[in-house]
């Protein structure tokens, strides 16, 4: 979170808070990357938490790590299942060709 506290300087444009739409006073908080303005640090923090909560539905890092591990394990198992099926089919075709050639001779 990168922000700047602006004191004694009214905003030139966007005279309302980006989170609660209240008019800004002579002191306000500005988020540096997006240039959004907030009436105070509490309003800025609340807006950042709700934004992150909307984009990231997991409440803690352990839950997120568990979810990523489950997805990667499932993906790995799907790939291994496809590989084993292909190897089995190739073996059966080769075995079928060998038994067919031996029976002709």
Molecular structure report:
This protein is mostly helical. About 55% of the residues lie in helices and about 10% in strands. The chain has two helices and three strands; from the N terminus they run βββαα. The chain has a three-stranded antiparallel β-sheet with strand order 1-2-3. The N and C termini lie far apart (about 80 Å). The mean pLDDT is about 75.
> How many beta-strand runs?
3
Low-confidence stretches: none
- Terminal Cα separation, in Å? 78 Å
- Alpha plus pi helix count: 2
Which structural class is indicated by helix and strand composition?
A: mainly alpha
Beta-strand share of residues? 5-15%
Strand order of the largest sheet: 1-2-3
Order of helices and strands: EEEHH
Shape: rod-shaped
Mean pLDDT: 77
Summarize the amount of helix as a percent range.
Answer: 55-70%
Sheet with most strands: 3 strands, antiparallel
**CA gyration radius, whole angstroms:** 30 Å
Summarize the structure.
Helix content is 56%, strand content 10%. With 105 residues, the chain is mostly helical.
Topology:
Layout: E1 3-6, E2 28-31, E3 37-38, H1 41-55, H2 61-104
Antiparallel strand pairs: 1-2, 2-3
Can you tag this structure with a few keywords?
mainly alpha; 105 residues; 56% helix
């Amino acid at each position: 979170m990168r922000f700047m506290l602006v004191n004694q300087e009214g905003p030139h444009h966007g005279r309302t808070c980006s989170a609660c739409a209240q008019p800004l006073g002579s002191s306000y908080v500005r988020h540096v990357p997006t240039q959004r303005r907030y009436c105070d640090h509490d309003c800025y923090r609340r807006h950042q938490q709700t934004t992150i909560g909307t984009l990231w539905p997991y409440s803690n890092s352990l839950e997120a790590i568990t979810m990523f591990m489950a997805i990667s394990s499932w993906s790995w198992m799907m790939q291994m299942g496809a590989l084993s099926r292909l190897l089995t089919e190739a073996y059966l075709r080769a075995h079928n060709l060998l038994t067919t050639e031996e029976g002709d001779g």
